[in-house]
Fold:
Amino acid sequence: MKRSPSKKRPHPRDIAVLDTIDAMRRYVKGMRGKRRIIGFVPTMGALHEGHASLVRAARKECDIVIVSIFVNPAQFAPNEDISKYPRTFEHDRALLETIGAHAVFYPSARMMYPSGFATAVSVDSLSSMLCGMSRPTHFRGVATVVAKLFIIVAPDKAYFGEKDFQQAAIISRMTEDLNIPVTVRACPIVREPDGLAMSSRNVYLSPTERKDAVLLYRSLITARKTYREGVRDPARLKDSMKTVLAEGKSLKLDYIEFVDPVTLAPHTRADNRTRMIMAVYCGKTRLIDNMRLA
Amino acid sequence: MKRSPSKKRPHPRDIAVLDTIDAMRRYVKGMRGKRRIIGFVPTMGALHEGHASLVRAARKECDIVIVSIFVNPAQFAPNEDISKYPRTFEHDRALLETIGAHAVFYPSARMMYPSGFATAVSVDSLSSMLCGMSRPTHFRGVATVVAKLFIIVAPDKAYFGEKDFQQAAIISRMTEDLNIPVTVRACPIVREPDGLAMSSRNVYLSPTERKDAVLLYRSLITARKTYREGVRDPARLKDSMKTVLAEGKSLKLDYIEFVDPVTLAPHTRADNRTRMIMAVYCGKTRLIDNMRLA
Structure:
């Protein structure tokens, strides 16, 4: 008997949506049985080209790409409105199908944090500075949920964007420290044509704010140029950035730091390894960006 | 060619000693390939009949029993002398061979906590009370090392003694919260003929202290008897225990609490589920014990 051609959907193919921890484990167990190399991209949804680049990087190195979509309550502080975080599941699923992800892990908050949940994973020495100053419990929430996801999904490799550079450093450290057998890959920032780092939070920006937002990128480029001209003093390099940021009336600086890319410790003299990391309020939206100095 | 009979050592057979994380993972991978059910008993060495009972429980339910011996620096406070903790590796290995354990994981502190190590696992709501009052960082160190060991050894089942009841509750909670696929078994306390709970720390006791130490057990039995006579007020039950403890001149009470066996929250009215938990200084040695009220 011939199968109806309408039943075939070679491209975009159906993506498996797994909305329980047990279903996710069964799926992975099946793939492991077939000796598939598993890549994993944890996200909070509201997917954009930055996430897509992570899925593509995973497809290059792995047989199976699993993407989690979970707006993690543990990484929002009480004053941060998790209910306003953009949720676009149908759009996300369609995008993931188009770019060739194989499965979506889409658990509920109740499933990830059942009644009585009491455990936290923290990487204190990397979490208290930089973004941890204004978001003291944020990275504890991130490290905890990523540890859980790594243990549930048990991928071979996991892909994070360098846009949240501190987050990537914390996750690398946590994974190594807890002996979780996952290779963590930090992938380059994907930018809009004008240089603004892609972020799910960019949808919050008004047209004026969106114009100002590009100044984060421009300030990083300016510091790079100043460095190339021979300036090594972080304070002077920061000043060159602040001058650029001052052009944006909707901008309010949270911090700029020049740090070691692994320990995140401040550099007192800039060198080629130095990472510039910054956070700026653009209206009410907090934007982050970073760049290697050279 | 005949093999020399002297090469055969059927019982006690050689136990595998794995002193690196990689060697441990390879051993487990090999056993998994043969579909062996793996049981795990984490210890700090100085093994006694309490540990032996855990190995026996593991042998009943599993094909392979792995015992870790690691005096975990993270669970000792600066004022607690880790260098004095009893270390008896050759004795431990011989005992484990005799009772039929298959492998010992015996890593160094440098391997478990390499330079730059920065991660902690904590179960705050269960860790601050009871023994956490006098040892504020202790359970954080325990939860961290057990998470690491569970991830490295990846056993099916793990066995803990109920002697450290709070520890067993914390490890159960942590394992469930982090979705670690290990079944945690809490096994009954093993006691000396006179009732003293077995502990590696009992070797520290002078003959007089050893005599006094049995009063912990006797006080628990007394509270049980008082409860059976109809007393439900924890304060009165505690008083009956304190009267017994007062007979020991070397004893100094740290705490007695009557708690829920899962949440460790205090019971204001005792019932059959109530767990009595206590810690008492016996000379300079801190002893713990606990018992179900009924």
User: Anything to note?
Assistant: The longest strand of chain A covers residues 251-259.
